[in-house]
Amino acid sequence: MNNIKVSPLAPREFPELPAIVGVRLSVVAAGIKYSGRTDVWLAELAPGTVVAGVFTRSKTASAPVDWCREVISKNHPRAVLVNSGNANAFTGVAGRDAVKASATAIATRLDCQPDDVFLASTGVIGEPLPVQRITESMDALVSGLGSVGWPQSAAAIMTTDTFAKGAGVQFELDGGHGHIAGICKGSGMIEPDMGTMLGFLFTDVAIEREVLQQLLVECNESSFNSITVDSDTSTSDTVLLAATGTAGNAVIRSMGDPRIGAFRLALDDVMQDLARQIVRDGEGASKFITIDVCGAEDDRAARVIAKSIANSPLVKTAIAGEDANWGRVVMAVGKAGEQADRDRLRIRMGGIEIAANGQAVPEYDERPLDAHLRGSEIHISVDVGVGSGTARVWTCDLTEGYIRINADYRS
Amino acid sequence: MNNIKVSPLAPREFPELPAIVGVRLSVVAAGIKYSGRTDVWLAELAPGTVVAGVFTRSKTASAPVDWCREVISKNHPRAVLVNSGNANAFTGVAGRDAVKASATAIATRLDCQPDDVFLASTGVIGEPLPVQRITESMDALVSGLGSVGWPQSAAAIMTTDTFAKGAGVQFELDGGHGHIAGICKGSGMIEPDMGTMLGFLFTDVAIEREVLQQLLVECNESSFNSITVDSDTSTSDTVLLAATGTAGNAVIRSMGDPRIGAFRLALDDVMQDLARQIVRDGEGASKFITIDVCGAEDDRAARVIAKSIANSPLVKTAIAGEDANWGRVVMAVGKAGEQADRDRLRIRMGGIEIAANGQAVPEYDERPLDAHLRGSEIHISVDVGVGSGTARVWTCDLTEGYIRINADYRS
Fold this sequence. Notes:
The structure is a homodimer of 411-residue chains. Chain A is α+β, with helices and mostly antiparallel strands and 411 residues long. Chain A folds into 2 domains: 23-280, L-amino peptidase D-ALA esterase/amidase; 288-407, Roll (Ubiquitin-like (UB roll)), CATH 3.10.20.340. Chain A is built from 12 helices and 16 strands. In chain A, α6 (209-221) crosses α7. The radius of gyration of chain A is 22 Å and the shape is globular. The model of chain A has no long low-confidence stretch (mean pLDDT 88). At the A-B interface, α2, α9, α10, β14 and α12 of A face α2, α9, α10, β14 and α12 of B.
């Protein structure tokens, strides 16, 4: 695991992210599983911050996810604490105790209640979290607040990730500016369902919690919920969005507020950028694949079909082999179980129509198609010929690298 | 593709299958795609034979599947014609024409109607079927009837299969004997949904078509519908069961007939044997995995959970790596979306309990578990702690071999 090279699809460098007034960051190396790297991250939130969150729909959710679900509607958020190397999932009573101990250790030092602290853990499932290593690092962690930025934060929450992931934006607000900064992690066990792997977003916009929550849920649909690496949904998927209210704008109190539009566009930008970065770090990935489906019965049906294509191991291995095997796309549309008119189905790759009206397009130009498939950004577009539903999903190809990584992850 | 060795999980040899009076077999090498091997198989059925069938639920079903669905309830079955090398799927009007031409060519020679002929095709999707090669081989095919047996038949319908698959049985009936012989093919694109890949079963039992159909549907649930190789459902899945009525028994006319019991047991035996052989030939497979789920809300929920485990690439790669990574089993149970009591979940591998009551079993004996995982027959058993629903599903592991086979199948 330690010898894995950076994904060939990684961005050239970690982007410039805006600082968010009211947020201070810190990391430590607590030795939870890895040696010689940071593995605990703390974000302190200024009093008055509101937090929205979405979480995994897994029926075997981790202890930290249970904790966050419980505290999210009742607290005065003051901190987010995340560790890598251990998911604290399927750890029973010990897992719940570990969560409480971590939150209490933070609360004591930041002069708040334990349930003002959000928690997330990522790594191996089913092994007890060595929580003492976290609590023993707490003094160093708190005294380090303000000493690191986003790149160090994003690096501390990595597991099988091969690069640190961040995205940020500045937008106009009330004659001044609002800012969003986000980091996330994720590489395998990625088909976020309700929330996602771990994603943490921060903004200085002043906004009511309920409005923030609704925005997060909506933006999540077209970002983290629209990616898949391997169709496996984590026990730990968590996305938190904290708004410190330090931008100086008049508080946004409803989804009807005219300023929602710009904020939403900015949030979409950041969340989709982060989601795509997770796909770009898909275990073993050599191609980044965008799948557009149109002509479905409705948007829901379009998404089911797009996910069926994106999760098909036969489609993913064909793309890995640079093979325009659209027959496998037909198969994946068929198995999705949603309405599709076989005799009106159209399939494009790289913009070139290769199948239409129930059969192969005769004599399409293979050269530009081959060139497209040899590249690292693949575009598959399918019109299922039934209605007006559309969806866009991102995924990556399936290579021998995925097998190598996952056949010896734990050992 | 031609260099792939026989699966390490293959049976030692093709089994002895009983001859079915009223069925004559023939094969030819028509050169549809492969050179130097047979690729068309014909089974002639005696007048009076009845046929039951189940087919793919794919919304992009192949032309032969459409054909079979149309003729199954109205014909006097006289033949089954199958080709490998081309699926005749997503081939539009040309595909429908090819189906009609094949059926007519048989009908002319066997003195029956075209819709007395069942058809199936398997191979690449989306390329026009070179039907002329089939019709030109028809004289040789018909004149060869009776010259070959089950092993040659099973070999002619193979695509990426690495061994020919057959199973048969003799059972007591009305003081004499009934017989069942079946062959099938399948290796990748295997998660049969309604029917399966291609499976052809023959019996000499005298039985009404409606009763035969109901039996087939029920036995199909616990055989072909209980396997998965890669979660991809074919456009061509077809299982046909032909009963020639030559065994001499008084005709079975209802599911309440006391002789149904023995026939059903025999049919279950043969169909489950064939289904397991498909898994044993799973592309790249090195381990055969049996997954038992109990304690689910009902049998349906148990099957959803078992399939979720069986289709998880992380579970499958862990088994390939001989790693008892039961955390991934927990994940797969969780993502299935069915009720599970995380704190009562129990997981066994090779009979050894490794997780119970929401956490790892402390100090279980790792040696027998490691020995089990190094073997080629893996058993995962999960109690989800909610109700009394059970299910058994068979699958194989996911290895680099799967990627190699599928990244250059078409090219």
